[in-house]
Amino acid sequence: MLTKGDDYPLHQTSEPIAFAGTDRNFYDRYFFNGYSADGSVFFAAAMGFYPQLGIVDASFCVIAEGVQHNLRASRRSGGERLDLSVGPIAIAIDEPLQKVTLRIAGGDGPLAAELTFTGRHFPIEEPRFIRRNGTRLFMDYTRMTQKCGRSVPPNRNRRPRAISTSSSGSGRPAISTPHRSSSTATTMVSARHGTGAA
After folding, report:
1. Domain membership of residue 161 as a residue range
2. CATH no. for residue 74?
3. CB-CB contact of 140 with 128 (8 Å)
């Protein structure tokens, strides 16, 4: 089964990119989180690819003004691992290992967002983690971690927040972010990408 990834020199075996070995539970996953300096706003997002199961899952959660909002999405992958969208949740690799944009489409749901993560340093490859239950392999994964900053307009005087809430025309909460520029916010944001089996 050939997919878009097969056009790139990324193969780790003689098999097409769609095949990820023999472990049924193999996954490839993104995880993002961020919060405002005063802790009033927190968000987390994830997207996981399970090639042996043919599934892609994604989620976005934000807590703002004491209220938690959750969005979950799932679809069949069809083996295409370069399609980084699941329902209203999408990831764009703007600059590999440097800049990633997470988009939550407004549509019929109560949330909308566009969050760009810009690495403050080259990603760190964490040590491989292996855990066994007796003789059975329980977990085997490797993660890449990167602390990121979010940019805000330089003429903005108030302290930036990771996300701000407002009401849309329908009265539903909406998530928005300031425009990007060269000025870095004090917001703490991290991004992780891992592969493994669990």
Report:
1. 4-197
2. 2.40.370
3. yes
